[in-house]
Design goal:
The chain is α/β, with parallel strands linked by helices. The chain folds into two domains: 189 residues, Bordetella uptake gene, domain 1 (D-Maltodextrin-Binding Protein, domain 2); 96 residues, 3-Layer(aba) Sandwich (D-Maltodextrin-Binding Protein, domain 2), CATH 3.40.190. It has twelve helices and ten strands. It has a five-stranded mixed sheet with strand order 2-1-3-10-4, sandwiched between helices. A five-stranded mixed sheet has the order 7-6-8-5-9. Helix 7 links the parallel strand 6 and strand 7. Helix 2 runs parallel beside helix 10 and helix 3 packs across helix 10. It is globular and about 60 Å long.
């Protein structure tokens, strides 16, 4: 055997070495229960959507998936736990559009949103719906905006930088009014304050607000999607109501630590896609207003990077001040 041939064989083996352990590891994965961090409180939209997906995913993978709710700081507390976790496929993050808002709202967060995570799958998008207590007397979004322009308006959110916060800021910026932001630890807590009338309005995911809308405890004024929600077909979009650039895409999905082996990311993605097509999951998604958004892991990562830039621009235009 010539020296050149030996060198080429050795070089090929050396290049293949890092890949082979990953493939072997992925083939054995998962060999123990998986921890799923939901960075918002139980009953929040992402918690509801996440559990619908994780239950059948657990069965498909043959391992328990233990859900841990670690709310606070707009989702950054739970996200930080995942960013620092071992990238071995045994810690996953169930998050939403608030994830890409973190760099704008929490510039000093202990992780890099774009670099420290890898996108796995988007479960779908959920319309945020603008809701008020019927006692407030607003029948339309135009009436609320007119009142807000006179001053003393407040809005609740599931925390600074959460999707509920961002949807409201998008509307506020597009409609041209000021309002005092009142953040809470999670969506259910914020929603309670709107129900009682102590806070004027909120832009909440339909999954969390629908039961109160149907019971008459909350009045829906508009949805933040580009088209009307199939769950609330009589409720106009904010754009229909006359406020351009007020739409907000509230996605929900799964991410993992950035250095998680690609074979594991790909396997997770494939299994999640199968779960999303299960008739039982499709049926559970319908009353939640979930709309499909099929993207690959690489497309998911690219989408997040684009949203990060857009959100930073929104902060500048709106003159928002964060820590």
């Amino acid at each position: 055997m010539t020296t050149r041939r030996r060198f080429l064989q050795w070089s090929g083996a050396a290049l293949a070495t890092p890949v082979m352990p990953q493939l072997a590891f992925a083939q054995k994965w998962p060999a123990k229960p998986i921890r799923a961090i939901v960075p918002f409180s139980p009953g929040s939209t992402i918690d509801i959507i996440g559990r619908i997906v994780l239950d059948p995913l657990s069965a498909a993978l043959g391992q328990y998936i233990v859900v841990e709710n670690r709310g606070g700081a707009g989702g950054t507390i739970g996200s930080a736990l995942v960013a620092k976790a071992a990238p071995d496929g045994y810690t996953i993050l169930i998050h939403a559009a608030a994830h890409s808002a973190a760099p704008a709202a929490y510039p000093h967060a202990p992780y890099d949103t774009a670099r420290d995570f890898s996108g796995v799958s988007v479960f779908g998008t959920v319309p945020n719906v603008l809701v008020v207590s019927p006692a407030k007397g607003f029948k339309t979004i135009q009436q609320l905006v007119a009142a807000a322009k006179k001053g003393n308006m407040t809005f609740a959110s599931a925390g600074v930088g959460s999707a509920t916060h961002w949807a409201a800021e998008r509307l506020r910026l597009a409609a041209g009014f000021q309002a005092v932001h009142v953040p809470f630890r999670g969506g259910p807590e914020a929603l309670t304050e709107v129900l009682t009338g102590r806070v004027d309005f909120m832009c909440i995911g339909i999954s969390s607000g629908l039961q109160f809308i149907r019971s008459g405890q909350l009045l829906p004024l508009a949805v933040s999607t580009l088209k009307r929600s199939t769950v609330l077909p009589d409720v106009p979009t904010t754009i229909e109501a006359g406020y351009p650039n007020s739409d907000y895409t509230f996605w929900n999905g799964m991410l993992v630590p950035a250095k998680t082996p690609r074979p594991i990311v790909d396997k997770l993605h494939a299994e999640v896609q199968k779960v999303l097509k299960l008739p039982a999951v499709v049926e559970k998604f319908k009353p939640q207003g979930v709309e499909p958004l099929p993207v690959s892991p690489k497309e998911f990562d690219a989408m997040i990077k684009k949203e990060i830039a857009n959100n930073i621009e929104i902060v500048k235009k709106a003159g928002l001040k964060f820590g």
